[in-house]
């Protein structure tokens, strides 16, 4: 969908009925000036999310010349958010800290050096402190969003889809190759599967619960239960003994031990998560050497640092275009209001993506 939106010194696209620019600018300028306090989910000490979060009233953030003030409309709840609150994520909190690392919303105010964006624009972004009514965001972190994409969808754009693109790019798979991934019921895995299947890659997902098998099959993947005693035999049968060309491991531990002997020669293993909480994996050097396997750790921020600005922008253009034309979809979501998150969080559905609104 060429020309869907623009970067640099042009305003991001909007769709539908044209806005009255004068009224729009006046409306958001009034918001920025009249709202001095805001609600936020903050923590004064690190720990489990459900134990240390507090709903507070705090001052709205001041913005620098290179930042915009965003009225946050939606925020996904990711594993990274839980690690951030525990203080064990690569990005460390500065206490007291507003929770949340990703979101989407409407620009309310722009710093003096900001160009290409204006109050009223819809944007998504990664920034610390998104679990609040407002968030100060650097212009470089802004992703323009089409107005026809709902905030509960656009808030998921900044992290998981770009991670999926990066993981598949690093795996260097071609049509017909075999891809194995675990934690296959996760939001990220669902995006990886869609992108891989679109490229003609054969995908097998490992699950802990049989109830998720139909959803994976609907995306075009085969699904197996990770805890099945016959897993190794089943994996070998699926590929006809050829082995897997890539394994994307979000878990570690015994499953990595099981999979390494089932890799194809010159196979690629990406370790990008630690859901097993550092459970050990056992393998020999010869298992890696004799098949010329590549075993690599992966972090999205390090990957992004190796890309040009234009490459990152193009990746996000592809993501937003795919959401707009329906070729990419996200996992089913369940929404919870910001002010009710602390009380409702323990009861949120485990088979849907929690979104704070």
State the distance separating the first and last CA atoms: 29 Å
Unreliable stretches (pLDDT < 50, length at least 5) are 1-22
Shape: globular
Strand content: 15-25%
**What gyration radius follows from the Cα positions, in whole Å?**
22 Å
- Number of strand segments: 16
Helix content: 25-40%
Mean pLDDT across every amino acid position: 89
- Element order, helices and strands? HEHEEHEEEEEHHEHEHEHEHEHEHHEHE
Count of helix runs: 13
Main sheet summary: 7 strands, mixed
- Secondary-structure content class: alpha/beta
Short description:
The protein contains 13 helices and 16 strands. It is α/β, with parallel strands linked by helices.
Helix and strand arrangement:
Elements: H1 21-34, E1 37-43, H2 49-52, E2 54-59, E3 67-76, H3 79-86, E4 97-98, E5 102-110, E6 122-126, E7 134-138, E8 143-144, H4 151-154, H5 160-171, E9 178-181, H6 187-198, E10 202-207, H7 213-219, E11 222-225, H8 231-238, E12 244-249, H9 254-259, E13 263-271, H10 285-289, E14 294-297, H11 300-305, H12 309-325, E15 333-336, H13 341-344, E16 353-356
Parallel strand pairs: 9-10, 9-12, 10-11, 12-13, 13-14, 15-16
Antiparallel strand pairs: 1-2, 1-4, 3-5, 3-7, 3-16, 5-6, 6-8
Helix pairs in contact: 5-6
């Amino acid at each position: 969908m060429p020309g869907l939106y623009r970067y640099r010194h042009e305003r991001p696209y909007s769709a539908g009925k044209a806005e009255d620019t004068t009224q729009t600018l006046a409306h958001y300028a009034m918001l920025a000036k009249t709202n001095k306090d805001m609600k936020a989910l903050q923590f004064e000490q690190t720990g489990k999310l459900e134990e240390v979060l507090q709903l507070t009233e705090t001052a709205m953030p001041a913005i620098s010349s290179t930042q915009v003030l965003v009225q946050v409309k939606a925020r996904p709840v990711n594993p990274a958010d839980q690690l951030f609150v525990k203080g064990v994520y690569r990005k460390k909190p500065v206490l007291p800290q507003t929770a949340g690392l990703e979101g989407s919303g409407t620009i309310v105010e722009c710093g003096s050096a900001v160009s290409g964006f204006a109050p009223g624009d819809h944007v998504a972004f990664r920034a610390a402190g998104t679990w609040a009514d407002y968030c100060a965001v650097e212009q470089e972190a802004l992703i323009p969003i089409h107005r026809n994409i709902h905030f509960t969808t656009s808030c998921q754009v900044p992290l998981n889809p770009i991670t999926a693109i990066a993981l598949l790019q690093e795996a260097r798979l071609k049509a017909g190759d075999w891809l194995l991934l675990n934690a296959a019921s996760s939001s990220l895995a669902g995006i990886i599967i869609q992108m891989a299947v679109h490229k003609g890659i054969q995908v097998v997902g490992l699950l802990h619960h049989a109830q998720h098998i139909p959803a994976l099959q609907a995306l075009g993947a085969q699904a197996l239960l990770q805890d099945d005693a016959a897993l190794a035999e089943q994996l070998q049968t699926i590929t006809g003994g050829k082995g897997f060309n890539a394994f994307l491991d979000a878990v570690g531990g015994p499953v990595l031990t099981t999979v390494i002997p089932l890799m194809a020669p010159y196979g690629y293993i990406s370790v990008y998560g630690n859901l097993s909480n550092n459970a050990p994996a056992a393998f020999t050097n010869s298992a890696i050497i004799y098949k010329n396997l590549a075993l690599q750790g992966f972090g999205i921020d390090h990957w992004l640092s190796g890309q040009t600005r234009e490459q990152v922008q193009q990746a996000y253009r592809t993501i937003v275009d795919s959401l707009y034309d329906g070729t990419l979809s996200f996992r089913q979501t369940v929404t919870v209001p910001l002010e009710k998150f602390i009380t409702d969080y323990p009861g949120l559905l485990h088979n849907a993506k929690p979104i704070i609104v």
